[in-house]
Amino acid sequence: MRVNRTTVDLSGYPDLVVIYLGMRVRKPRGMLRLLGLGPKLYRSHQDRPDGLLSHEDVIWSLFPPHWGARQYWRDLDSLERWTRSAPHRDWWQKFLRDSGGTGFWHEAYFMRGGIDAMYDDMTGTSGLPRFAPVVASRGRMFSTRGRVNNEDAKVAPVVTESTYYSDESD
Questions:
Q1: 3-state DSSP assignment of residue 16
Q2: Helix 88-97 vs helix 30-46: angle between axes, to the nearest 10 degrees?
Q3: Packed helices 88-97 and 76-83: angle between N→C axes, nearest 10 degrees
Q4: Which domains does the chain show, CATH number per domain?
Q5: pLDDT of 150 higher than 60
């Protein structure tokens, strides 16, 4: 008997974005951050933000704990609007001030072409850095639209580049 082989018709989703996310514990206190933030992020996708088509939880590894998700978004505009709104914006601002002993990353793949990647406080290699050169998130590399399309963000970032890097001269 043959295997039932199928595929999907994505013609109704020309601007589809698939994003993989991960949070990996780097220090013992990172377990508290992961356990504290995880349920909040889980509830946020259950609210079905506009543009989120599907969310799947993923466990990348148990040792060290490395949990995440795969999400399907209608388009980058809706994904950006959600990331710039509460509660996501508030969590992200807090994380960028102090990772809490965790590392966070995302890799996004666009139906129209292009891949975006961002890694904050990640140790070791995971994903694209296993083979591609790692560069600083500066200038056009600071935002998703800059990295993928070499264009400015349509929505203000959660934290501006000048604010993020302002304490370097201290």
A1: coil
A2: 160
A3: 70
A4: 17-153 (3.30.70.100)
A5: yes
